[in-house]
Amino acid sequence: MIGIVDYGMGNLFSVSKALERLDAEFFISDDPAELAKADGIILPGVGSFRDAMILLEYKELDVFLKKHVDNGGYLLGICLGMQLLFEESEENGPAKGLSLIPGKITRLSGMDSKNNAYKVPHMGWNKLTFNNQSPLLKGLEEDYVYFVHSYFAVTNETEVVAASAKYDVDVPAIVTKGNVFGMQFHPEKSSSMGISLLKNYLSLVKGRQ
Amino acid sequence: MLTKRIIPCLDVKEGRVVKGVQFVSLRDAGDPVELAAFYDQEGADELVFLDISASHEGRETMVDVVKAVAGSLAIPFTVGGGINSLEDMKQILRAGADKVSLNTSAVLRPELITEGANYFGSQCIVVAVDARWDESLGSWRVYTHGGRRTTDWEVIAWVKEAVNRGAGEILLTSMDNDGEKQGFNLALTRAVSESVSVPVIASGGAGSAAHFEEAFTTGKADAALAASIFHYKETSVKEVKSFLKQKGVVVR
User: Fold this and answer.
1) Global ipTM
2) For a tag site, which of A35, A95, B198, B246 has the least CB within 10 Å?
């Protein structure tokens, strides 16, 4: 059973529709006690990091998510939901994250190393490059997925970056640490590749049941 | 590398796709859901739905259309037309659209862009600009109300203003080129693309696959939108993409 965290900042509709198409059993809740019944959690999110953390903390969902992961439960963060997995973000002044994956969230500068301007947000279809093994990538080939974001993850632990996308910087696209996963792009908007990635996550969760 | 996007645009009136889409293979050529699925299969990178309903009931219907499309489509889509308030944006985005496109309402009240961007984030807010060359201005002028009314805005000044206020993308239509099928307005597209930091969608004038290539290379567009040449099967998204690939333009 999948629990989708509803803390007021996600495009829950498209994520839940994607799960429906995959015949997954899921529910949506903002209540830690309810969500505790799920084998796997999906943390969606669109908007600002700081606002998201305030809302998660207000509902004590931050405590729940850490406990869920400690107990061996699976967690998948999507877009802002992935960024929240890291230690902190500089968006609107430094804000602490869930610290489940080492690294921090920083703004795409809009200027490359040769001082050429590039566009921010990073919006559109970009190809994944697989760097490290992850159960999410099982049976899949490098393909295009849909990104929309202005901030990105920077981490010294390169082994957590299972896949990245080449923009003017290398953008971590899929991160994996133990039972915690994150996707910077929108799998629910990434046509067949996105569906396959979600399917792999669902299989993992099912394996735990 | 980020790919160049190809975006078919569908006009919706009272919940039905209009402009006579010519697909014999479709059971119902006016059904937005069926057409959206068709273009997804064809390899479209995004879709734009333009609500051209004149009535309040038509607009209400659009919310149902958005819900139905969002329920079946696995690529992003934008909804424009008749979005005049934060409340309108909430309705459309909560129904499952990924972005809303503002045109006349943004020119009349530019604060609307900021309100939308603050509430949903810039990535949800597209500002659509209808531009026509103006000899007296020595540049392009912004038009509103479906191109029927002039404004005091020069295009470059307006797009900069829109981006400063939080627009995450510019959908730029050349009224001079629209419907002519002689190609996108490359000078306009390039001028806008070089003056803002956000992606620019070129629109108006697509007549062949080669026109898309020009829009991306000479015009420096990030995406290109077309309606009739796709609907009337003069070319297809697939054909355009395979042409672009041959020419070395990165597409999905």
Assistant:
1) 0.89
2) B246
